[in-house]
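TICKET: design request
STATUS: open
ATTACHED STRUCTURE:
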């Protein structure tokens, strides 16, 4: 395979030919959207930091999915009702995410394929088609959460009616177009900037809330109450089930290949090491932000005796009187908008990877964005129109249930492919990593099945 760093494009004659010994049975004849971005040069020699910096970025795009608006309501409900106790659930879910994303990086670099391509190459057409439909539903559900989260943020910050905020989110296609024209590093820079905005906003709110440090430290230790208390268990399951997002697995296996690393064994081994470090650090930031949401709710509501708060709008309205500072709700709204905007970019790229990988259909990112956003805006407008603002909250919860349904269909193929020595060759993950990944897959499936049943029963 040849590629030119100057143009950032794969050679037009490039083809990933079928290898008879790699476990895949289909060739990939044309460069994908992600391969066309493969223009970030990777030094083969030099200091550790210079080589690591070349890989820094994809992990932060992935981390956005672990702090998107869909996670906020559950963390706020858990912190306001049970204080710091459910921080253990946040910590466990983050460890699960770190391991699964490390597996994604290893698989993509070892095989040169993203998860969608691998599913298409390894399964029959009917199975691949079903997996594609489920993956598209997950993208729409993710986008739905972003639409509602951004609209709520605009309402909280500017007083816009929710239905107007939903309509405004359609114009983020211009943001996608601009970033695409500037190159992949600009996309990464925008997302990292949004993450920093979210982090700064929560640091400011935590300073105002003055949480209990002893409560935070004890909250990271698992408590028997999480299992024995039915309501606490439900919220813990919600935190675990809503954290590991299926589209992130497809996304990471695609964007990690934007780096122009050497394709020999030594080059791949270094790429795996640096890509894993990148995602681990980025997901550490995601852990901080997710924990901050719960800690803020615990300090602002639980410690002050207010009780359970489940609605984002209610949380925003209560911050100023409880914390005694008018800047607190502003920081909350800004962080929510930044979360929605950053998720917009990553969900669009994940959708493109899924469409190209399963169907070999390549659309411009703007067209892809308009299609996905259209499927998200229509139900959002209908729910808000008929049921009012309460409908937006219900739709946010529904989007998480849809994601829960799809998750096993992304996790299980990833674990199976990663354990296949024929596909992974010299880069098959260590046994302990595969065992943990299998345990996580079973746990995620069980937790998500319970979430779905609880939702239907409720």
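STATUS: resolved
RESOLUTION: sequence designed for all positions
ATTACHED SEQUENCE:
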């Amino acid at each position: 395979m040849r590629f030119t760093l100057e143009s950032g494009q794969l050679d037009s004659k490039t083809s990933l030919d079928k290898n008879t010994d790699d476990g895949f049975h289909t060739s990939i004849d044309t460069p994908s959207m992600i391969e066309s971005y493969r223009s970030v040069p990777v030094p083969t020699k030099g200091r550790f930091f210079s080589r690591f910096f070349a890989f820094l970025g994809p992990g932060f795009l992935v981390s956005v999915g672990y702090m998107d608006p869909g996670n906020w309501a559950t963390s706020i409900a858990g912190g306001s009702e049970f204080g710091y106790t459910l921080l253990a659930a946040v910590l466990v879910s983050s460890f699960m995410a770190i391991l699964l994303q490390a597996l994604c990086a290893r698989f993509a670099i070892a095989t040169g394929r993203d998860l969608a391509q691998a599913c298409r190459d390894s399964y029959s057409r009917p199975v691949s088609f079903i997996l594609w439909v489920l993956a598209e539903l997950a993208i729409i559900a993710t986008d739905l959460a972003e639409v509602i989260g951004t609209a709520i943020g605009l309402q909280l910050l500017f007083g816009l009616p929710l239905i107007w905020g939903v309509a405004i989110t359609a114009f983020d296609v211009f943001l996608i177009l601009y970033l695409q024209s500037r190159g992949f590093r600009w996309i990464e820079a925008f997302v990292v900037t949004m993450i920093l905005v979210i982090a700064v906003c929560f640091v400011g709110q935590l300073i105002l809330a003055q949480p209990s440090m002893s409560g935070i430290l004890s909250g990271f230790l698992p408590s028997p109450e999480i299992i024995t208390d039915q309501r606490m268990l439900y919220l813990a399951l919600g935190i675990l089930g809503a954290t590991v997002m299926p589209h992130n697995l497809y996304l990471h296996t695609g964007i990690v290949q934007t780096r122009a690393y050497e394709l020999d064994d030594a080059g791949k081994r270094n790429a795996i090491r640096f890509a894993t470090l990148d995602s681990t650090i980025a997901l550490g930031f995601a852990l901080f932000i997710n924990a901050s949401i719960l800690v803020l709710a615990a300090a602002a509501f639980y410690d002050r005796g207010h009780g359970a708060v489940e609605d984002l709008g209610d949380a925003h309205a209560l911050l100023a009187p409880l914390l005694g500072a008018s800047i607190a709700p502003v920081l909350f709204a800004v962080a929510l908008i930044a979360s929605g905007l950053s998720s917009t970019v990553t969900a669009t790229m994940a959708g493109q990877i899924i469409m190209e990988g399963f169907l070999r259909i390549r659309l411009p990112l703007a067209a892809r964005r308009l299609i996905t956003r259209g499927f998200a805006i229509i139900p959002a407008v209908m729910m808000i129109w008929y049921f009012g603002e309460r409908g937006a909250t219900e739709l946010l919860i529904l989007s998480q249930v849809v994601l829960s349904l799809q998750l096993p269909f992304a996790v299980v193929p990833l674990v199976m492919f990663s354990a296949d020595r024929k596909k992974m060759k010299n880069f098959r993950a260590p046994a302990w990593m595969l065992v943990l990944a299998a345990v996580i897959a079973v746990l995620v499936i069980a937790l998500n099945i319970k979430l779905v049943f609880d939702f239907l029963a409720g």
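CLOSING REMARK: The beta strands are 3-4, 9-10, 40-41, 259-260. The radius of gyration is 21 Å.
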